[in-house]
Design a protein that fits this description.
The complex is a heterodimer of chains A (257) and B (431).
Chain A (H helix, E strand, L loop, with lengths): L2 H7 L1 H6 L8 H10 L9 E3 L5 H4 L2 H22 L7 H10 L5 H26 L8 H23 L4 H12 L18 E2 L2 E2 L7 H6 L6 H32 L8
Antiparallel strand pairs in A: 2-3
Helix pairs in contact in A: 5-7, 7-8, 8-9, 8-11
Chain B lengths: L5 H31 L4 H22 L8 H10 L2 H21 L1 H4 L2 H18 L3 H7 L5 H29 L5 H4 L3 E3 H26 L24 H6 L5 H22 L15 H25 L26 H9 L8 H25 L3 H35 L6 E2 L4 E2 L1
Antiparallel strand pairs in B: 2-3
Helix pairs in contact in B: 1-2, 1-6, 4-13, 4-16, 12-16, 14-15, 15-16
The chains are: A mainly alpha (257), B mainly alpha (431).
Bound molecules: protoporphyrin IX containing FE.
Chain lengths: 257, 431
């Protein structure tokens, strides 16, 4: 009996994996049904649904990048304090001091890559007409995921607190000032008054809500940090679960009828 | 312009040496594949020769003096693509290019043609790198993804079109699409699980390489007092920032993005065409296909590329090899429609009352948004209107009209310096 065999026959191994090694047809089916992670997939699938030239694997790649971002992001959080006093220095030290210096690169390039792959995934889904019935709703879920991916990237852009960061966020959030009705420079804001007092000022408009201040400041850093590390990832994770569930329930990867 | 800078020359020479070697390997790989797998010896020889050409380029680059585009050609491109006229030529030119690619797709998807185009564009990129202004923009760490995006989109558009052309040919002959041939079922373990594993490993390798060779940027600490020029939003929002030139912030930053998101979500409910579900095709869904491509490739991706590479200080438009000079002054004399109408056409002064002043723009906008749809419904979109019903038709046509308003406004700005069709600054309402 080889070593592999011994390990696979041990009580410990068997307590974790509830099935024999997937070496024959029967056990290849069993593994898909009994393993928590694998049961996301069906047991068998049309050949065309797994052809790389059909799906480009772009949804899968996007998901993988989301996982990479989660892991590298958690590691970065160990070293980073979201205050204007520390943020920049922590990022700087990350490269020089810690042995995990490359995490920042992985996290940043992974984020760029995720924006690209999510677009490519949408592109593929459109070009194969996979949004057509019965997959309309999953396309809608996808669009929300796309927006959340962009917001994840956008909120993260501020965190290094360098010139690139605050000015990109300033440019990006200036527009909120002009939200119709709710921005203090937007059309219709003068309509919202209470007893002659303007409700929408630069201390209460949409931009203020976004930034937590009248300009990109300490409060903004905190707000974006919480959004970036907690709120948006949780929303993405929830929607991803729905997205994957619906891929299965809508009949698996699309294909010609 | 720039004087001789040894550090820059060295960086470019080193980069190009490796870059051309990579291209040589790419072509040698293609040659090997053609020869071994497809037994097309003649093609293999051609690409092998191309690979050797790249080896020569690599050697020259490593020698320290990489070849660049001829000075005259650079100057020519700079003069073509500069200022307002440059923006017109770039945008309309890329649109014309997309139309040509689409119209003659059967020719362009041929692997030989596509591979030639790929080689030429990679060569052009390499030859351009010796220009310092070009290098400084393209090799900026945060801009690398945009170059990657351009090539990835090129590749995947080719792949999808290649399959669509094949399928369309088959459908014409009464055959099912190629995807149908693969409807036999296979087990997910091992076929899919292993594919996924390999994808993950490959991707991890790419990310690691990227992270090792390109450092994440960190500029000076944030400083409110020092506004960089240009101040750019993150690259994926540059399309929106570009819209700010033509629209007020409440439109470019709030209303239009909302329309984009809602419009994307609405696609499955608007597109009533049952065909083309689950396989690549163009013929069977030409209208949906072309509208999506205008929105995605032209109005989203092209604007991002424009915003990243060609928009410099003061959001001026610069040629690809033109140094970004913050003191370059472009005389911009934008005129509102009301001024055109009252002053230039009627020879009067602009009236006081808002409605009296702006009536022409208001009428035009209302006609565009509310008169055009029924006219179209009665004429070219007759079939759509009948099949879709009133509400769905209206939603579709509004989304399309709003989308097309952007290029219309762009062209009007560049050609006749039109600022706003309706300008009511009193109410923060400019359009
Ligand atoms: C965080 C972002 C996203 C992730 C991780 C994700 C993941 C996935 C995965 C793994 C699949 C399985 C098939 C494949 O890999 O292509 C899939 C399918 C699908 N996705 Fe996404 N997706 C995302 C965003 C989107 C977006 C932006 C859209 C569209 C706007 C979209 C629409 C769809 C649809 C309609 C399907 C079913 C396709 C079919 O059956 O062929 N998804 N997604």
């Amino acid at each position: 009996m080889g070593l592999g065999q011994t390990i696979r026959n041990s009580q410990l191994w068997k307590s974790i994996f509830r099935h024999p090694a997937p070496l024959d047809r029967r056990n290849r089916i069993v593994v898909m049904l009994t393993n928590f992670f694998l049961h996301l997939h069906p047991v068998s699938i049309k050949k065309q649904g797994i052809a790389l030239s059909y799906t480009w694997c772009m949804g899968g790649v996007t998901f993988f990048l989301f996982l990479v971002e989660t892991v590298t992001g958690v590691l970065l959080m160990f070293y980073y304090r979201p205050t204007t006093e520390w943020a920049y220095r922590d990022i700087q030290n990350l490269a020089d001091v810690t042995s995990l210096g490359i995490m920042r690169e992985l996290h940043r390039w992974g984020a760029h890559a995720m924006v690209i792959t999510v677009w490519l995934h949408m592109y593929r889904v459109f070009l194969t007409g996979s949004y057509k019935p019965p997959r309309e709703f999953n396309w809608v879920v996808g669009v929300i995921l796309l927006v959340l991916t962009l917001l994840l990237s956008f909120t993260g852009y501020l965190l290094p607190w360098d010139q690139l960061a605050i000015w990109a966020i300033t440019v990006g959030s200036n527009m909120a000032r002009a939200t119709p009705l709710l921005g203090h420079e937007g059309p219709g804001q003068q309509l919202l008054t209470l007893g002659g007092v303007d409700l929408i000022t630069n201390m209460s408009d949409a931009r203020y809500v976004l930034l937590g201040a009248r300009e990109v400041a300490n409060e903004t850093l905190n707000r974006f940090y919480v959004l970036h590390c907690i709120a948006i990832p949780l929303a993405v994770a929830t929607l991803l679960a729905i997205h994957f569930w619906r891929v299965r329930k809508d009949g698996g990867i699309s294909g010609p009828l | 312009m720039h004087g001789y800078d040894p550090a820059f020359e060295k960086a470019v020479a080193e980069f190009l040496g490796i870059y051309y070697l990579g291209l040589a390997a790419l072509n040698a790989g293609a040659a090997y594949w053609l020869w071994q797998k497809l037994h097309k010896v003649r093609d293999a020889v051609v690409w092998l020769a191309v690979a050797l050409g790249f080896v020569v380029l690599a050697a020259v680059s490593m020698g320290g003096a990489p070849w660049g585009l001829p000075h005259g050609l650079r100057e020519l491109l700079n003069t073509i693509f500069t200022g307002n006229r440059g923006a017109v030529i770039f945008t309309l030119g890329s649109f014309a290019l997309l139309v040509i690619l689409f119209r003659f797709r059967r020719f362009f998807v041929r692997p030989r043609v596509a591979w030639t185009i790929l080689n030429l564009s990679l060569l052009y990129l390499g030859l351009s790198m010796t220009s310092r202004p070009f290098w400084e923009i393209v090799a900026k760490p945060d801009n690398v993804p945009i170059v990657a995006l351009a090539f990835l989109l090129g590749f995947f558009t080719w792949l999808a079109t290649y399959k669509a052309v094949q399928n369309d040919e088959r459908i014409k002959q009464g055959l099912p699409p190629l995807e149908k041939e693969d409807s036999e079922k296979v087990l997910v373990w091992p076929d899919l699980v292993y594919t996924e594993l390999i994808c993950m490993l490959a991707l991890t390798a790419v990310l690691l390489f990227w992270a090792i060779f390109i450092k994440a940027p960190l500029e000076q600490p944030a400083n409110r007092a020092d506004t960089p020029n240009p101040s750019k939003a993150p690259w994926y929002f540059l399309g929106l920032q570009e819209m700010l030139v033509y629209y007020d912030p409440w439109m470019a930053g709030v209303v239009l993005p909302t329309f984009i998101i809602l419009g994307l979500m609405a696609i499955p409910y608007i597109d009533f065409n049952k065909k083309g579900n689950g396989y690549y095709t163009i013929e069977e869904r030409k209208f949906a296909y072309s509208m999506f491509q205008i929105g995605f490739l032209q109005l989203w991706v092209v604007l991002i590329i424009l915003g990243t590479f060609l928009r410099g200080p003061n959001w001026n438009f610069f040629g690809p090899y033109e140094p970004w000079d913050a003191h370059k002054v472009l005389v911009l004399n934008n005129v509102n429609l009301s001024e055109y109408f009252w002053i230039d056409l009627m020879g009067m002064s602009v009236p006081e009352g808002i409605l009296a002043r702006e009536w022409l723009g208001i009428v035009l906008l209302i006609a565009y948004l509310f008169l055009l749809p029924p006219i179209l419904a009665a004429t070219i979109f007759r079939q759509f209107f009948i099949k879709m019903g009133f509400i769905r038709y209206m939603i579709m046509i509004q989304l399309l009209l709003w989308m097309l308003l952007l290029p219309i406004k762009m062209v009007l700005r560049w050609t006749i310096n039109l600022k706003y069709i309706i300008a009511i600054p009193e109410w923060f309402f400019n359009f």
